[in-house]
Amino acid sequence: MTSPNKDQLEARLHYPLGDTLPAPGGTLEVAPGVKWIRMALPFALDHINLWLLRDTLEGVHGWTVVDCCIARDEAKAQWEQIFATGLDGLPVLRVIVTHMHPDHMGLAQWLCERWNCRLWISATDYHSARLASQSTTGFGGEGAAGFFQAHGMTDTDALEKIRGRASYYPSMVPGVPRGFQRLMDGQTVTIGGHAWRCISGYGHAPEHIALYNEALQVLISGDMVLPRISTNVSVYDMEPESDPLALFLDSLERYLPLPAATLVLPSHGKPFTGLHERIRQLQDHHAERLDEVLAACTKAPHSAWDMIPVLFHRPLDLHQSTFAMGESVAHLHRLWFAGQLRRERDTEGIWKFRAR
Predict the structure, then answer these.
(1) CATH superfamily of 14-278
(2) Under a CB-based contact definition with an 8 Å cutoff, are residues 325 and 268 in contact?
(3) By Cβ atoms counted within 10 A, which residue in 24, 66, 180, 319 is the most buried?
(4) Model pTM?
């Protein structure tokens, strides 16, 4: 039986706004007191969704910003347009960042300094961002190159380019605010008179925070639940024996108690309903990938690099290949931790995985 393709799966979701998008430099209201901003990214994943929440903090009326975009002049210019026309003459009162990845964290320091306000984020992601902004970890440099090489990437040109990406994270997150307000799982943040409950998620980022508003039945899902693409789940060089896919799949279960009518505001793609259906799709997707990995490793030992064409059925550039390598290791590790694969180094020092 042939698995449904992305278009068929997406057709099972509902997009209340259809194909309507916010204008560049503008906002679009998606729920009472909730505005949608869409900013361009210079990658294959070419946009990020950001959110404005009408707020009152310590008696001052204004807005809470959720996520920031990478640090680039184009994004700053777009923010300035929004400040001028989209805030009803009110200030930004705080900045919430769902997790530490550059497209979410990049302009946090600039926004906090611009409005003299506080960053709100999980402690784990705050400290991870501080570390990465000072010395890239997991995204490039010698450590990442050595990790990928140990998992089968032997192309010397590609490895050299990865070594040269030591400033990859700082180039998009040049600084992190010196102080922050901690967000934790189960915590309730009152924003504009509404209670937004924090739901932590793992596997994609160290301690991702999604926000759920029961009164509005709105979930700001960050990167944990996306409508069309599957969230990147990777093993990185600084935690080389981790099992992030198990963490991610466990985290998805936390969204199942939310109502079926929940409006999901994702970081990429369009606002949608069909949360439970999308979670099932993501669970099925990873189950199918794991079956494919196990089948391949039953026939012969495979490295993570060997598994990339099994997991990704399209050409990948170097940027995409680094993410694909992390995902490949993550799927191999899930089966290794489950006892279905064993691993051993070959004569060239490359980790190979075979079925038990």
Answers:
(1) Ribonuclease Z/Hydroxyacylglutathione hydrolase-like (3.60.15.10)
(2) no
(3) 66
(4) 0.96
